[in-house]
UniProtKB/TrEMBL annotation:
Keywords: Carboxypeptidase, Hydrolase, Membrane, Protease
Superkingdom per UniProt: Bacteria
Protein known as: Penicillin-binding protein transpeptidase
GO molecular function annotation: carboxypeptidase activity; penicillin binding
GO biological process, one term: cell wall organization
Domain PASTA: 596-657
A cellular component annotation (GO) from this entry: plasma membrane
Length: 661
């Protein structure tokens, strides 16, 4: 029988939950979770639907920025691929004022680095809130300082500036480009649509510190470089023409000069030289008058160089023959109230050939009066007078030619010997090209590539036999006792025509200032080169045969030597031919051979064939200046045995037909 412990408490009985209490807790939790979820969705909806565009724009401004890059301007090259103008990379500075945090500090820093007045900078930056150019094409030192000291809102961007590596060579033809890399003058302006580089706009990402992260090349895959332009100019012949022209203008104290060299077979301009020179690298520091392309823009009265067109027109109209004779009034002929003179000589009867050879104004006037105004004007118009030459040169002039209905008797006479009409050098070159091309017009060309427009077939103005007859008369001007005898080159037929024209006065009439000119065909019977030179207002002498003819002669010698086409020049190396020296047949009286070149001293070149002397100098890195005609060195400067001259000093060889005794 068991015993019970009276002190032991009975075990507690577990309480049972009230029905429905656990379900209530679950509902509360679910409601709270649901409310939270709804709040999150509401906020997300507000952010995305209501504030989406605003916030996205803020994010773009913070992490993505727009940038741009300007394309490089195309190069300008000569016909042989030599660089005449090219682009060089610079850095430029711009500011986005809205991003600047410490404006005063930034302005002081920029003013110090860029050497600009503080007040000027502040005015620029306060005026705009988007984009401000602060400095263009800064130097590398300033760019490095700005890149190292980073201010928010200050940016460097690459740009291209123009460089003309040959300085003044063909400066008036090339023109120049401005700070925005847009062409402002010359070929740079007329071919700007081809040369100009494009602009690429692209986006770049930034980190939290504002550093650019170029994670892609969006926008950069576009080719934004401008296209190259190839000119017909030959840099070497251009240099020959500029050197010869400068020598003549300076020697005769002329105001200015122009020389043009044309390849007859193609009409391509090989050289278009001007003096005084113009250096487009420093165009801001040079007088704007130097920018002007005188060959295309300046109008002048041509004088006697106009007479070949008169004779060609009269021959074509069968009004004359080369043997037709005219009485030249012993040098003075009164026509109405005016007196026409032959200044150099007084002549009686002259044939047409002699009228051309001796450049008789009276004989020319009588031919012109016989031809008549309408016929003469018709031929001049067909030769291109009164219209622009159609080259890639801005501002080219049409010249001045009145309607033939307004020509009086004296007008016809004056225009017959090149007065009373205004022309440009390029118009004259184009007209003479017709005579050189056997009477068919041919357009002058300055741009070789890209082809601007298809060449139109030329118009036959003169019969072939007429053009050749006029060229024969021009040959007589040089090879007989005419006004152009100084244009002769040994072993070569040369044709030419001199011109000496009085300059008209603003108040009317003519003064004592002149324009001297000469036109030459090389060779004269089958022209390869057409060369014309003009010197404005020479003072020490004024006849074309004295002032302008030597320019054409020297350029012709250089061009023919360069092309290895001088008589007796048997395919000499281009390096030697490029020295622009005559290479005629060496006289049998050459008495000695070349001696070894003494170490560090100038050798004795006297008595050597010119070709041999040039070879010796070229090996020493010296390009000589050649004076005179002939094939043998008669003298030299510096003298034998002296030290080699510095690079800036000329080495001169003086020539004669044989060595001096």
């Amino acid at each position: 029988m068991s015993m019970r412990n009276p002190r032991k408490k009975p075990a507690p009985v577990a309480k049972t939950a009230r029905p429905g209490s656990g379900r209530w807790r679950i509902v509360v939790v679910a409601v709270l979770f649901g409310l939270t979820w709804v709040a999150l969705w509401a906020r997300a909806g507000q952010v995305q639907l209501v504030q989406g565009e605003e916030l996205a724009e803020k994010a773009r401004r913070q992490h993505v920025m727009g940038s741009f890059e300007r394309g490089e301007r195309g190069d300008i090259l000569d016909r042989n691929g030599r660089s005449l103008a090219r682009s060089v990379r610079f850095n430029s500075v711009y500011v986005r004022p809205g991003e600047v945090e410490n404006l005063d500090a930034m302005i002081r820093h920029l003013a110090e680095v860029l050497r600009q007045p503080v007040g000027e900078l502040r005015q620029k930056l306060v005026r705009s809130r988007d984009f401000v150019w602060v400095a263009r094409q800064i130097d590398d030192r300033a760019a490095a300082v700005l890149a190292e000291r980073k201010f928010k809102g200050v940016y460097l961007t690459p740009e291209f500036g123009r460089l003309y590596p040959n300085n003044h060579l063909a400066g008036q033809v090339l023109g120049f480009a401005g700070v925005d890399d847009n062409g402002l003058e010359g070929v740079e302006r007329s071919m700007d649509s081809v040369l100009a580089g494009g602009r690429a706009d692209f986006l770049v990402q930034r980190d939290a510190s504002g550093n650019r992260l170029y994670l892609d090349d969006q926008g950069r895959e576009v080719n934004i470089r401008g296209r190259d332009v190839v000119l017909t100019l030959d840099a070497h012949i251009q240099d020959l023409a500029e050197t010869a022209l400068a020598r003549s203008v300076e020697h005769f104290n002329g105001r200015a000069g122009v020389c043009v060299v044309v390849d007859v077979a193609s009409g391509e301009i090989l050289a278009l030289a001007h003096y005084p020179f113009f250096n487009p690298n420093v165009y801001r520091r040079q007088n704007a008058d130097l920018w002007r392309n005188r060959a295309a823009m300046d109008i002048f009265e041509p004088g006697s160089t106009f007479k070949p067109f008169l004779v060609a027109a009269a021959l074509q109209e069968k009004k004359i023959t080369p043997q037709s004779r005219y009485y030249c009034e012993n040098g003075r002929w009164k026509l109405g109230r005016h007196t026409i003179r032959d200044d150099i000589h007084a002549y009686e009867w002259l044939t047409v050939d002699e009228i051309m050879r001796y450049s008789s104004n009276i004989g020319s006037a009588k031919i012109g009066l016989e031809l008549g105004a309408k016929r003469y004007a018709s031929y001049l118009s067909r030769l291109g007078f009164g219209e622009r030459p159609g080259l890639a040169l801005p501002g080219a002039s049409k010249g001045l030619m009145r309607a033939p209905e307004k020509w009086r008797e004296m007008d016809i006479a004056a225009i017959s010997f090149g007065q009373g009409i205004g022309v440009t050098v390029l118009q004259m070159a184009r007209a003479f090209l017709c005579l050189a091309n056997d009477g068919v017009t041919r357009e002058l060309k300055l741009v070789k590539s890209p082809i601007v427009s298809e060449s139109e077939p030329g118009e036959r103005v003169f019969d072939e036999d007429v053009a050749r007859a006029v060229r024969r008369m021009m040959v007589d001007v040089v090879h007989k006792d005419g006004t152009g005898v100084r244009a002769r080159i040994d072993g070569l037929v040369v044709g030419g025509k001199t011109g000496t024209a009085q300059k008209p006065l603003p108040e009317g009439g003519y003064g004592r200032n002149y324009i001297s000119s000469f036109v030459g065909f090389y060779p004269g019977d089958k022209p390869k080169y057409l060369i014309m030179a003009l010197v404005d207002d020479p003072s020490r002498a004024f006849y074309g045969s004295t002032v302008a003819l030597p320019v054409v002669h020297d350029v012709a010698l250089g061009a023919l030597a360069y092309a290895c086409e001088l008589p007796g020049q048997d395919n000499a190396p281009v390096e030697l031919a490029a020295l622009a020296v005559p290479s005629n047949e060496v006289s049998a009286r050459v008495v000695r051979e070349a001696q070894p070149v003494p170490e560090g001293k100038v050798p004795d070149l006297r008595g050597l064939p010119l070709r041999k002397a040039v070879e010796i100098l070229v090996r020493q890195g010296v390009v000589p200046l050649v004076e005179g005609n002939g094939a043998v060195v008669a003298g030299q400067s510096p003298t034998p045995g002296t030290a080699w001259p510095k690079a800036a000093q000329p080495f001169t060889l003086r020539l004669k037909g044989h060595a001096e005794s």
